[in-house]
Design a protein that fits this description.
With 47 residues, the chain is mostly helical. The chain is 45% helix and 0% strand.
Length: 47
């Protein structure tokens, strides 16, 4: 799998990609099997 290139995707796809990599976003946690962003998300994101 190659490096992600935002130029090859729609704005919605780029936004979704960013959300998936951002521990401040519920999508990040949903994709990791959590039920949204936990209250201690900052501590968990550091690990």
């Amino acid at each position: 799998m190659g490096k992600y290139n935002g130029d090859d995707h729609t704005q919605d796809e780029n936004d979704n990609h960013s959300d998936q990599l951002n521990p401040n976003n519920d999508t990040y946690w949903d994709d990791r099997g959590e039920d949204g962003r936990p209250d201690d998300w900052e501590d968990q994101a550091e690990n």
